[in-house]
Specification:
CATH architecture of the largest domain: 3-Layer(aba) Sandwich
Helix content: 25-40%
Number of domains: 3
CATH superfamily of the largest domain: P-loop containing nucleotide triphosphate hydrolases
Shape: globular
Oligomer: single chain
Number of helices: 9
Strand content: 15-25%
Number of strands: 13
Bound molecules: guanosine-5'-diphosphate, zinc ion
Radius of gyration: 21 Å
Structural class: alpha/beta
Strand order of the largest sheet: 10-9-8-11-13-12
């Protein structure tokens, strides 16, 4: 999923749509996009609140995703989305053909799900974290399947040791441990979250454990197409019983984060960003420049070697992009 802010064309399209909307027109209503499937967008009316409705939309609005705040109106031919309110952010992913696809808007928290099995890839974790930093999202590192732990190890894969000093929350969970599911629910309160991570770490199982049964059943029913065949579940925003929203993105939870090449990579690594102020050169890349405070801190162990390796690898990837 990309840590990319809106491109200029998207922004100007939204601004253009905005200009033609009269905020004082009582026919214009505000709503939250719950799901978008084909030509139908499910909208939760916000003001005044009410039951979800199916809306059409003006094609000129561009992509509409879960979490979008929509302005809709009904001029006698059914509700129609006529504008989108400006987004705080837009999560995007790269599809199998190298195209960037929007996944969800106005997200505030990225839950990076790892597990004892398959073992965490800290490089991928760091990519997710850079993506979160670029989008201004909070990140929660979740180590699932903790029940598979053989020994009484308190910090497998040193996730707590490396990431907590940086200010990231690290939580252990198991679908077999209700207390850990409660703790996860608590971390979702007050946020609009997306759960990401590679296949097999337990994202679907955790999502099922978090969401009320009734919501899952409704989502499954709405995913039968007109011929009665079951189709891939689409992304959907859920209100959680204890507060907070979860945008579930079945099928694309294992997205590859795509980083924004326009943002300095070092800003995506909190400790590198902070220390780089002490480098001799303002434009230090922390590779082989003299007087580099970052490399000095890697040598003393103040910066974890694996974090610096991730930084260097991403820097090389960036250089490879034409
Ligand atoms: P996803 O691909 O990330 O959505 O992963 P799934 O939710 O499909 O889970 C993959 C496998 O891991 C399934 O067989 C689950 O039953 C199992 N699993 C999920 N969570 C846990 C857990 O906390 N502990 C254990 N032991 N197995 C789990
Ligand atoms: Zn430096």
């Amino acid at each position: 999923m990309a840590g990319r802010r809106l491109n200029r064309r998207q922004q100007s399209r939204i601004r253009e749509a905005q200009r033609t909307i009269d905020p004082n027109d009582p026919a214009n209503r505000a709503g939250l996009v719950i799901s978008h499937r084909g030509k139908a967008v499910e909208v939760e009316p916000l003001d005044p609140p009410g039951d979800n409705i199916q809306c059409g939309f003006k094609p000129s609005l561009g992509v509409i995703v879960c979490g979008d705040r929509a302005i809709y109106r009904d001029d006698g031919r059914g509700p129609l989305i006529v504008a989108l309110q400006p987004r705080d952010n837009l999560l995007q992913r790269m599809d199998g053909f190298g195209h960037i696809k929007a996944v969800a808007a106005n997200v505030t928290q990225l839950v990076v799900c790892l597990a004892l099995e398959p073992a965490p890839n800290r490089f991928l974790l760091d990519q997710y974290l850079v993506s979160a930093e670029q989008q201004g999202l909070q990140a929660l590192i979740l180590l699932n399947k903790i029940d598979l732990l053989q020994s009484a190890e308190a910090d497998p894969f040193e996730l707590k040791a490396i990431y907590r000093p940086l200010g990231y929350r690290v939580l252990h969970s198991s679908i077999e441990d209700p207390a850990s599911i409660r703790a996860l629910r608590e971390q979702l309160q007050g946020h609009t979250s997306v759960i990401s991570g590679v296949s097999g770490v337990g994202k679907s199982s955790l999502t099922k454990a978090i969401l009320p049964d009734i919501d899952i059943r409704i989502a499954e029913i709405s995913d039968f197409n007109k011929e009665g065949r079951h189709t891939t579940r689409s992304s959907r925003l859920y209100h959680l019983p204890d507060g907070g929203d979860l945008i579930d993105t079945p099928g694309v939870r294992g997205f590859n984060p795509v980083l924004d090449p326009k943002q300095p990579l070092s800003d995506g690594f909190r400790e590198i960003r902070d220390l780089s102020q002490h480098c001799r050169f303002a434009n230090c890349r922390h590779v082989n420049e003299p007087g580099c405070a970052v490399r000095a801190s890697v040598e003393t162990g103040e910066i974890a070697a694996s974090r610096y390796r991730s930084y260097r690898k991403l820097l090389e990837n960036e250089a490879a992009i034409p």
